[in-house]
């Protein structure tokens, strides 16, 4: 299960992502990010309540980091997943 809440923070589209980023939810997050970027070059993601990410979800997050997403708050799990291998 994945919950995505959309809002605008400081004039920038923002998405609060909660739950598990796996399976079909990976495509859903991609779709919502792409829709949120319309009219803006960036979107801010709050990943502080993401508890599980599968390999496809991790690949999407890395792709988004290089592209339209600013990864704001991250759970310890997500931070380690994305940065752990670079330490």
Describe the structure.
There is one protein chain. The protein is an alpha/beta fold and 87 residues long. It contains three helices and four strands, in the order ββαβαβα. The protein has a single domain, classed as STAS domain (Transcription Regulator spoIIAA, 2-Layer Sandwich). Helices cover 39% and strands 40% of the residues. The protein has a four-stranded mixed β-sheet with strand order 1-2-3-4. The model has no long low-confidence stretch (mean pLDDT 86).
Could you outline the blueprint of secondary structure elements for this entry?
Elements: E1 2-9, E2 12-21, H1 24-37, E3 43-53, H2 55-66, E4 69-74, H3 76-83
Parallel strand pairs: 2-3, 3-4
Antiparallel strand pairs: 1-2
What is the gist of this entry?
The protein is of the alpha/beta class and 87 residues long.
Poorly predicted parts: none
Strand content: 35-45%
- Top CATH class: Alpha Beta
Class inferred from helices and paired strands: alpha/beta
Strand order of the largest sheet: 1-2-3-4
> What is the mean predicted local confidence, pLDDT?
86
Query: Which superfamily, in CATH terms, is the homologous superfamily?
Result: STAS domain
Count of helical regions: 3
CATH topology category name:
Transcription Regulator spoIIAA
Number of self-contained structural domains? 1
């Amino acid at each position: 299960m994945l919950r995505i809440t959309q809002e605008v923070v400081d004039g920038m589209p923002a998405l609060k992502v909660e739950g598990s980023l796996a399976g079909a939810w990976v495509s859903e997050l991609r779709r919502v990010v792409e829709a949120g970027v319309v009219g803006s070059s960036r979107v801010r993601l709050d990943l502080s309540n993401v508890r599980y990410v599968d390999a496809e979800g991790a690949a999407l997050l890395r792709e988004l980091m290089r592209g339209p997403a600013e990864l704001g708050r991250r759970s310890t799990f997500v931070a380690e997943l994305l940065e752990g291998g670079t330490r």
